[in-house]
Design brief:
The protein has 134 residues and is an all-alpha fold. Helix content is 84%, strand content 0%. It is built from 3 helices and no strands. The longest helix is centred in the N-terminal third of the chain and has 85 residues, at 2-86. It starts with a helix and ends in a 14-residue tail after the last helix.
């Protein structure tokens, strides 16, 4: 019976020692994974903050450009009738009457202007597609 008790105690001691070793390994592995997760979280957080700042700057530049264009269009619209009178150009009503009476002429003029503008634009150079970030 004493040998049997000693055998049980030895088995319990081995099991306890094994459990302690496994617990230490698990704790160590868990610590490494937590540190890795913390690093990944910091990187992702930094990337999101950077993209957010860039998006805000892009939005602000677009907003400024829109306001400048709007101001320019308003000023141009204000001065256009006076400039047209100085150049002896027809007023808006006369131009609308002309467009209603001769729509094909107006379309041909628009097409011609589009061709001229298209010819003045630089040709696009088709190169390799940009590489995507993974």
């Amino acid at each position: 019976m004493i040998a049997q008790t000693k055998s049980v105690e030895t088995t319990k001691a081995k099991a306890t020692a094994g459990a302690k070793v496994m617990a230490r390994k698990a704790k160590s592995k868990l610590g490494r994974r937590a540190a890795s997760l913390k690093t990944t979280t910091k990187r992702a957080s930094g990337s999101v903050a950077g993209y957010s700042q860039q998006a805000q700057e892009f939005f602000d530049r677009g907003k400024t450009a829109f306001h400048k264009a709007s101001d320019w269009a308003g000023a141009t619209a204000k001065h256009l009738p006076a400039a047209a009178r100085k150049l002896n150009l027809p007023d808006q009503k006369a131009a609308m009457d002309f467009a209603e009476q001769r729509p094909l002429v107006v379309g041909a003029v628009g097409l011609g202007l589009g061709l001229v503008v298209g010819a003045l634009l630089p040709r696009m150079q088709h190169g390799p597609a940009p590489k995507r970030r993974k």
